[in-house]
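agent> Task received from the user: take the single chain below, predict its 3D structure, and emit structure tokens. No templates, no multimer pairing.
agent> Plan: (1) validate residues, (2) run structure prediction, (3) serialize to tokens, (4) report one or two observations.
agent> Step 1 OK, no nonstandard residues flagged.
tool_call: predict_structure(input=
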Amino acid sequence: MTGSRSSSSGLRALRPAAFGADPSGDRLARIHRSPHFKDGIFQNPGGHASTRPSASMLEFAKLYFDKDQRPRRAPSGAIPVHATTLADLARPAATGLRLTWLGHSSVLAEIDGQRVLFDPVWGERCSPFPFAGPKRLHPVPLPLAALGPVDVVVISHDHYDHLDMPTIKALAGTDTLFAVPLGVGAHLERWGVSADRLRELDWHEATKVGGLTLTATPARHFCGRGLRNTQHTLWASWVVAGEEHRIYHSGDTGYFDGFKDIGAAHGPFDATMIQIGAYSAYWPDIHMTPEEGVRAHLDLQGGTPHGVLMPIHWGTFNLAFHAWAEPGEWTRDAAEEVGQVVASPRPGEPFEPAGQVPTDSWWRSVSHPIAHPWRRPRPMVSAAAAEERSDEECVAILESTEKGR
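)
tool_result: status=success, residues=405
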């Protein structure tokens, strides 16, 4: 028995720090009591969600090394990053709510006088190793130290593109609080965050930070950092509500009916930050397409266009087979179809949802051609309107529509 314990301790000592730590003790007991933990793993809402790609390694290799498609998955030039300055962020938000997309899913939200930092990733790669894994396609807009004080850091789940060890270690030296899903606190404690600065929540649980209420809400995804995915840490979306404003961060999630329930319980929202990148037909249960992202936003808002949708989880890392610019382009088109306002800031560009919303298609200047652009539905022409148009006009409308397909 002693030899077994020594062997186990030795294996833990060899485990890379970036793998984090497995929940144990009271934390693990709390996980086992969760109504969302069953048969040894956390369960997804809406039934089983496949977390493994539905393709063979050979199929993936063919896609990955395709000489025609591979260049499309990265920009053709330098991504135009907004050089965020301390002055940009030092002024109080005139409307009480300001968002700064810092790339991928990292967002600084200044809401009702407090500062919330979602999924901060300042690392060069989203990987446990500094020499391998997806590398940044653009630099971070500003150094982490230049961000200024943060009241609370919110983590959606423990995947490397959302929970970055070097960033957390740097923030551990501040006095910020951390709001994380159940079990994720084990990683943070290993990296130097004290237990008294952790707010570790199950779905539908809430915590107060100053004048803000932060609620962990369901998402359809999975977890894992090490060689084994034990599903012992939870994933979540987040609602942050202040005295005047409400915002929503989706984390990573597939589309599910639960968005309607979240909206009914906590919405409507002044702004939503919705994952619309790294989607694929090979893993449809755990990430959303742009069209699904727009549908999720509408569900959160009670079924009608409201507030501002800011797309996240795209543009910074190459994590799927779709064209690099496709998420930005397709989200714009899907939102236009339903009359929803979409913010498309450059990385690092602060904006206020109640003020001037950035809508420039900045990605087009550095994008390779998109192989299959958005397919708009054929415009409906009423009988009365058709009678007023000449045959030539009707033919021109149909021809222009078909060209767009």
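agent> Step 4: summary for the user.
The CA atoms of residues 129 and 331 lie 32 Å apart.
agent> Done.
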